[in-house]
Protein backbone atom coordinates (compact mmCIF):
# COMPACT_ATOMS: atom_id res chain seq x y z
CA UNK A 1 0.00 0.00 0.00
CA UNK A 2 2.69 2.45 1.00
CA UNK A 3 4.79 1.63 -2.04
CA UNK A 4 1.93 2.68 -4.34
CA UNK A 5 0.80 5.80 -2.48
CA UNK A 6 4.02 6.77 -0.74
CA UNK A 7 4.65 9.71 -3.04
CA UNK A 8 1.11 10.96 -2.50
CA UNK A 9 1.16 10.67 1.31
CA UNK A 10 4.46 12.52 1.27
CA UNK A 11 3.02 15.44 -0.65
CA UNK A 12 0.73 18.32 0.42
CA UNK A 13 -1.57 17.15 -2.38
CA UNK A 14 -2.74 14.35 -0.12
CA UNK A 15 -5.07 16.81 1.61
CA UNK A 16 -6.60 17.94 -1.67
CA UNK A 17 -7.09 14.37 -2.85
CA UNK A 18 -8.72 13.34 0.43
CA UNK A 19 -10.95 16.43 0.46
CA UNK A 20 -12.10 15.74 -3.10
CA UNK A 21 -12.84 12.08 -2.43
CA UNK A 22 -14.69 12.78 0.82
CA UNK A 23 -16.84 15.50 -0.77
CA UNK A 24 -17.67 13.40 -3.83
CA UNK A 25 -18.24 10.26 -1.76
CA UNK A 26 -21.76 11.47 -1.02
CA UNK A 27 -22.55 11.27 -4.74
CA UNK A 28 -20.28 8.33 -5.62
CA UNK A 29 -20.11 6.06 -2.55
CA UNK A 30 -17.66 3.77 -4.37
CA UNK A 31 -14.85 6.31 -3.88
CA UNK A 32 -12.31 4.99 -1.34
CA UNK A 33 -12.40 8.04 0.94
CA UNK A 34 -12.17 5.99 4.13
CA UNK A 35 -9.28 3.96 2.74
CA UNK A 36 -7.37 7.14 1.86
CA UNK A 37 -7.92 8.69 5.27
CA UNK A 38 -6.79 5.55 7.09
CA UNK A 39 -3.78 5.11 4.81
CA UNK A 40 -2.67 8.71 5.34
CA UNK A 41 -3.17 8.42 9.10
CA UNK A 42 -1.18 5.19 9.19
CA UNK A 43 1.63 6.96 7.34
CA UNK A 44 1.44 9.78 9.90
CA UNK A 45 2.00 7.21 12.63
CA UNK A 46 5.49 6.67 11.23
CA UNK A 47 6.55 10.11 12.49
CA UNK A 48 6.86 13.64 11.18
CA UNK A 49 9.68 12.74 8.80
CA UNK A 50 11.41 9.64 7.53
CA UNK A 51 15.19 9.81 7.77
CA UNK A 52 17.21 7.77 5.32
CA UNK A 53 20.89 6.96 5.06
CA UNK A 54 23.47 9.75 4.75
CA UNK A 55 21.28 12.08 6.79
CA UNK A 56 18.90 12.90 3.94
CA UNK A 57 15.22 13.49 4.69
CA UNK A 58 12.67 11.63 2.63
CA UNK A 59 9.01 12.42 2.14
CA UNK A 60 7.09 14.36 4.75
CA UNK A 61 4.14 12.47 6.19
CA UNK A 62 0.69 13.99 6.73
CA UNK A 63 0.06 16.09 9.81
CA UNK A 64 -2.51 14.27 11.92
CA UNK A 65 -4.45 17.37 13.00
CA UNK A 66 -4.55 18.77 9.47
CA UNK A 67 -5.72 15.40 8.21
CA UNK A 68 -8.50 15.32 10.81
CA UNK A 69 -9.66 18.85 9.98
CA UNK A 70 -9.51 18.16 6.24
CA UNK A 71 -11.60 14.98 6.45
CA UNK A 72 -14.20 16.46 8.81
CA UNK A 73 -14.62 19.69 6.83
CA UNK A 74 -14.91 17.87 3.50
CA UNK A 75 -17.52 15.53 5.00
CA UNK A 76 -19.72 18.44 6.07
CA UNK A 77 -19.30 20.24 2.74
CA UNK A 78 -20.29 17.11 0.84
CA UNK A 79 -23.36 16.64 3.03
CA UNK A 80 -24.44 20.23 2.42
CA UNK A 81 -23.91 19.90 -1.33
CA UNK A 82 -26.16 16.83 -1.47
CA UNK A 83 -28.67 18.49 0.85
CA UNK A 84 -28.93 21.61 -1.33
CA UNK A 85 -29.09 19.57 -4.52
CA UNK A 86 -31.98 17.51 -3.17
CA UNK A 87 -33.69 20.65 -1.83
CA UNK A 88 -33.77 22.09 -5.35
CA UNK A 89 -34.36 18.78 -7.06
CA UNK A 90 -38.03 19.37 -7.71
CA UNK A 91 -40.64 16.85 -8.78
CA UNK A 92 -38.20 14.63 -10.71
CA UNK A 93 -36.11 13.94 -7.62
CA UNK A 94 -39.24 13.43 -5.52
CA UNK A 95 -40.40 10.74 -7.95
CA UNK A 96 -36.97 9.09 -7.88
CA UNK A 97 -37.03 8.97 -4.07
CA UNK A 98 -40.59 7.64 -4.09
CA UNK A 99 -39.46 4.72 -6.29
CA UNK A 100 -36.72 3.82 -3.81
CA UNK A 101 -37.96 2.05 -0.71
CA UNK A 102 -34.63 2.61 0.99
CA UNK A 103 -34.69 6.37 0.38
CA UNK A 104 -38.35 6.66 1.36
CA UNK A 105 -37.85 4.76 4.61
CA UNK A 106 -34.74 6.74 5.50
CA UNK A 107 -36.51 10.00 4.72
CA UNK A 108 -39.38 9.11 7.05
CA UNK A 109 -37.07 8.02 9.86
CA UNK A 110 -34.88 11.06 9.45
CA UNK A 111 -37.84 13.43 9.52
CA UNK A 112 -39.17 11.88 12.72
CA UNK A 113 -35.72 11.92 14.35
CA UNK A 114 -35.02 15.56 13.48
CA UNK A 115 -38.48 16.62 14.63
CA UNK A 116 -37.74 15.10 18.04
CA UNK A 117 -34.39 16.89 18.13
CA UNK A 118 -32.52 13.59 18.05
CA UNK A 119 -30.68 13.44 14.75
CA UNK A 120 -28.31 10.72 15.94
CA UNK A 121 -29.45 8.86 12.83
CA UNK A 122 -27.41 11.34 10.77
CA UNK A 123 -24.30 10.44 12.77
CA UNK A 124 -24.79 6.69 12.59
CA UNK A 125 -25.63 6.76 8.87
CA UNK A 126 -22.29 8.48 8.20
CA UNK A 127 -20.54 5.19 8.91
CA UNK A 128 -22.86 3.03 6.78
CA UNK A 129 -22.07 2.39 3.10
CA UNK A 130 -24.09 4.97 1.13
CA UNK A 131 -25.89 5.92 4.35
CA UNK A 132 -24.52 9.43 4.16
CA UNK A 133 -25.99 9.84 0.68
CA UNK A 134 -29.39 8.54 1.73
CA UNK A 135 -29.61 10.81 4.77
CA UNK A 136 -28.31 13.98 3.11
CA UNK A 137 -30.51 13.59 0.03
CA UNK A 138 -33.47 12.62 2.20
CA UNK A 139 -33.10 15.68 4.41
CA UNK A 140 -32.90 17.98 1.41
CA UNK A 141 -35.80 16.38 -0.43
CA UNK A 142 -37.95 16.63 2.70
CA UNK A 143 -36.99 20.31 3.00
CA UNK A 144 -35.75 19.90 6.55
CA UNK A 145 -34.42 23.16 7.99
CA UNK A 146 -30.68 23.75 7.85
CA UNK A 147 -30.55 24.34 11.60
CA UNK A 148 -32.05 20.88 12.10
CA UNK A 149 -29.64 19.10 9.76
CA UNK A 150 -26.34 21.00 9.87
CA UNK A 151 -25.37 20.49 13.55
CA UNK A 152 -25.85 16.74 13.21
CA UNK A 153 -23.92 16.74 9.93
CA UNK A 154 -21.02 18.49 11.66
CA UNK A 155 -21.12 15.98 14.52
CA UNK A 156 -21.25 13.12 12.01
CA UNK A 157 -18.29 14.48 10.05
CA UNK A 158 -16.17 14.98 13.15
CA UNK A 159 -17.10 11.53 14.51
CA UNK A 160 -16.33 9.78 11.22
CA UNK A 161 -13.08 11.68 10.65
CA UNK A 162 -11.96 11.12 14.24
CA UNK A 163 -12.75 7.42 14.08
CA UNK A 164 -11.03 6.91 10.71
CA UNK A 165 -7.95 8.98 11.54
CA UNK A 166 -7.73 7.37 14.97
CA UNK A 167 -7.91 3.88 13.49
CA UNK A 168 -5.13 4.57 11.05
CA UNK A 169 -2.90 6.44 13.47
CA UNK A 170 -3.17 4.19 16.51
CA UNK A 171 -3.23 1.10 14.32
CA UNK A 172 0.04 2.27 12.84
CA UNK A 173 1.44 3.03 16.29
CA UNK A 174 0.53 -0.38 17.68
CA UNK A 175 1.08 -2.59 14.64
CA UNK A 176 3.53 -0.53 12.63
CA UNK A 177 3.05 1.54 9.49
CA UNK A 178 2.67 -1.53 7.33
CA UNK A 179 0.10 -3.65 5.54
CA UNK A 180 -0.93 -5.24 8.84
CA UNK A 181 -1.68 -1.96 10.59
CA UNK A 182 -3.67 -0.61 7.65
CA UNK A 183 -5.54 -3.90 7.16
CA UNK A 184 -6.63 -4.11 10.81
CA UNK A 185 -7.75 -0.46 10.72
CA UNK A 186 -9.76 -1.01 7.54
CA UNK A 187 -11.38 -4.08 9.06
CA UNK A 188 -12.47 -2.02 12.07
CA UNK A 189 -13.92 0.60 9.72
CA UNK A 190 -15.79 -2.12 7.80
CA UNK A 191 -17.24 -3.56 11.02
CA UNK A 192 -18.46 -0.12 12.12
CA UNK A 193 -20.01 0.40 8.68
CA UNK A 194 -21.81 -2.95 8.81
CA UNK A 195 -23.27 -2.22 12.25
CA UNK A 196 -24.36 1.25 11.15
CA UNK A 197 -26.00 -0.18 8.02
CA UNK A 198 -27.99 -2.62 10.14
CA UNK A 199 -29.25 0.25 12.28
CA UNK A 200 -30.15 2.47 9.32
CA UNK A 201 -32.05 -0.32 7.57
CA UNK A 202 -33.96 -1.31 10.68
CA UNK A 203 -37.68 -0.58 10.23
CA UNK A 204 -38.90 2.52 11.99
CA UNK A 205 -41.03 1.83 15.09
CA UNK A 206 -44.74 2.02 14.49
CA UNK A 207 -46.41 5.11 15.95
CA UNK A 208 -48.30 4.59 19.17
CA UNK A 209 -52.09 4.33 18.71
CA UNK A 210 -54.09 7.37 19.66
CA UNK A 211 -56.00 7.00 22.93
CA UNK A 212 -59.64 6.09 22.52
CA UNK A 213 -62.17 8.79 23.18
CA UNK A 214 -65.52 8.28 24.78
Description:
It is a single chain. This protein has 214 residues and is mainly alpha-helical. It has ten helices and two strands. It is elongated.
Strand order of the largest sheet: 1-2
Q: Tally the helices: what do you get?
A: 10
Q: How many individual β-strands?
A: 2
- Radius of gyration from the CA trace? 20 Å
Distance between the termini: 71 Å
Query: What is the overall shape?
Result: elongated
Secondary-structure element order, as H and E? HHHEEHHHHHHH
Q: Average pLDDT value?
A: 74
Unreliable parts: 48-58, 206-210
Largest sheet: 2 strands, antiparallel
**Helix content class:** over 70%
Structural class computed from helices and strand pairing? mainly alpha
- Please state roughly what percent of the residues sit in beta strands, choosing from under 5%, 5-15%, 15-25%, 25-35%, 35-45% or over 45%: under 5%
Say what oligomer this is. Answer: single chain
Annotate the secondary structure layout.
Blueprint: H1 2-9, H2 13-24, H3 33-44, E1 49-51, E2 57-60, H4 64-87, H5 90-99, H6 101-115, H7 120-125, H8 131-141, H9 146-175, H10 179-201
Antiparallel strand pairs: 1-2
Helix pairs in contact: 2-3, 2-4, 3-9, 3-10, 4-8, 4-9, 6-8, 9-10
Question: Could you provide a short overview of the structure?
Answer:
Helices cover 71% and strands 3% of the residues. By secondary structure, the protein is mainly alpha-helical. The longest helix has 30 residues, at 146-175.
Which tags fit this structure?
3% strand, two-stranded antiparallel sheet, 10 helices, mainly alpha, 214 residues
